[in-house]
Amino acid sequence: MNDHRRKRGSRPRVAPPDGGELSPGSPPGSAPGAARPPGNQRHWMVLCTKSRQEKAVARYLEARELEYYLPLIDRVSYHRSRKFIAQVPLFPGYIFLNGTAVDRYGAIDTRRVFQALPVRDQSRFQSEIGQIRHALANRAELELYPFAVVGRRCRVTRGPLLGLEGVITERCRNIHRLVLHVDVLGRGAALEIDVDLLEPIGEDESTPHCPADTSLAGR
Question: 75 and 115 share a domain?
């Protein structure tokens, strides 16, 4: 598993490896920079791309030394008894850009992007994307969870995914799925995790473990 990410002032690269340059709670490019004139402030936004254009847009942003984040996961396929592994976007059709209005217009002018969604809660967004990055950096097997989920929020208490927070769904024996939400997309990424590594958050913190059954929105 890997991700595309880019920081201003560093050497361009198409598919940089996961690294420890950012804290688990912050997405790429979240470090504060020099003050900029009004109207030229950089903010995180979501670029909605045309089908299978995510990597092409990432290369465009890379060439212009713009900050972005494109989380990738491994997808295994078989052809004539041969195994192939390809890296595909975790969130098909989306790439996250930390840029200005000019950067947004430039991305749309490529005709590979048809819309840019504003992120109103920048702090929350950075925390959510930071969790995705942290999970990928620790080789968690993430998969797209295509809709928002309602259930009990839990926190990982031990292991390489320590500190991740999400909603628990679908118990299978002693294994739960922890869904990491990305609110602006209305969806998230899910990973399997042992219930013994979880603790409830909020009102239910007195409960020893998260419950076995939860409800899913939209089902």
Answer: yes
Task: Express each pLDDT in 37-62 by its tens digit.
Answer: 455 899 999 999 999 999 999 999 99
Identify each DSSP E strand in the chain by its residue range: 2-6, 43-49, 67-79, 82-89, 94-99, 113-118, 143-145, 153-156, 165-172, 175-182, 187-194, 198-200
pLDDT at 85 over 70: yes
* Residue 157 near residue 117 (C-beta atoms within 8 A): no
Each residue's pLDDT tens digit, 182-204? 999 999 999 998 888 999 997 54
- Quick check: 128 and 119 in contact, CB under 8 A? no
Specify the pLDDT at position 5: 65
Q: Phi and psi dihedrals of 185, rounded to 5?
A: -90, -15
- What total number of domains does the chain contain? 2
CATH of the domain at 61: 3.30.70
To the nearest 10°, report the CA torsion of 100, 104, 110, 113. Answer: 150
Task: Determine the structural domain holding residue 59 and report its residue range.
Answer: 2-121
